[in-house]
Amino acid sequence: MERIKLKSVFLREEMDTLHIRHLYHQIDWSDRLVGILGARGTGKTTLLLQRMKLAFPSDDTALYISLDDIYFASNTLMEVAETFRSRGGKVLFIDEVHKYSGWAREIKNIYDTYNDISIVFTGSSVIDIYQQEADLSRRAIFYELAGLSFREYLRFADVYSGEVISLSDILSQHTQIAFKLSKHFKPIPYFEAYLDHGYYPFFKENIRTYFLRIEQVIRLIIETELRFVDGFDINNTNKVMQLLAILAENVPFKPNISKLSSKIGISRQTVTQYLHYLEKARLINMLNPAGASISILQKPEKVYLENPNLHRAISLSEANQGSRRESFLLNQLRNAKHEVSLPSAGDFLVDRKVTIEVGGKGKSRKQIAGVENAFIAADNLEIGIDEKIPLWLFGFLY
To answer: Is there a contact between 109 and 18 (Cβ–Cβ < 8 Å)?
Structure first.
């Protein structure tokens, strides 16, 4: 216990609190049980330690523990909680819960037994909370930490600190907003940098090794985190890697499940399941028409890489600019909690009422001619007019 307490103090003291994610201010930290889910590499551990440092800067009432620590090979989470509480502890910050067998049951028992203990925990986005044997869904408040928005990237890069802009304001006031923002920074070169290497917070550490880090993240997700998904066969890890590589070369991709099945050497049903797992792991985004039933066996109409940085990290050929544009817009809209589906005309139908076509600066309205409430999200455009909106501006949605 003393060793993990010393480790907790060390990590708290070493944590930088200069750059705080937007989600930090959305979380109601007064709730007794808070769950923060998200893909590997998005900064969940940093968020926990920043909260601990800012709210409990010098006392012993808070403790950070990671459940992949070797300490838990011979000690239980409940034992740690009981000892911590007996010494005056109040808040447990628990990292990597999915690495610990029976984590949901023990967290539930701590929560139900000790009403003077609060818990904040993190876990992989592949976790299906509703499939756990202990029902945490009625007890915990859950949040998801995505990668950096373009707005957050600018702040982390010490370029510009701006507020979130709603989709309705972007659609109705984009010319005035873009004109105002462009006085503070040149959006086009910074946006290109973001598409290349700005989604994961670790870009701050070393841009030269950024894509090696992404490759490591992808491999860890597929080789270690997907094994926590019910029904995933760990023997098919290389098949999943192969599937992801095929998608990366072809996105946006209209999958032919039979051809994918034949090429990879697994059944059609398994291919569809693995697409679902890759989406849960936040490595791809799948798109279907509005109102279509969504299930683990539902074949998607189109598949995208989850964020534009993945194109360069995974694809063997140079990333297609059009693919990166669409990947970016779908990513930012969904991370801002907008519903996005496949329209009959255009690229994306947002909240079942707004159609958006994505393209370059010279993109015409041909694909969305006659469509009501339709807009063009144009790349390489600093300031737009009427229904043509700069693509980069959608990076301020969260």
So the answer is: no
Answer whether 0.85 is exceeded by the pTM.
Answer: yes
Tens of pLDDT, residues 198-223: 999 999 999 999 999 999 999 999 98
- Determine contact, residues 392/186, Cβ cutoff 8 Å: no
Q: Strand 354-359: give its sheet, edge to edge.
A: 340-341, 348-350, 354-359, 374-378, 388-390
Q: Which residues pair with 390 in a beta bridge?
A: 378
Q: Where are the domains of the chain?
A: 2-145, 152-396
Give the closest residue to 356 by CA, choosing from 337, 375, 378.
375
Q: In the prediction, which pLDDT does 236 show?
A: 87
CATH H-level, domain 2-145: superfamily? P-loop containing nucleotide triphosphate hydrolases (3.40.50.300)
Distance CA(309)–CA(210), nearest Å, equals 10
Neighbours of 145 (CB within 10 A): 22
d(CA 354, CA 377): 12
Query: SS3 of 28, please?
Result: coil
Report the alpha-carbon distance of residue 275 to residue 313 in Å, rounded: 19
- Where is 263: in which H helix or E strand? helix 257-264
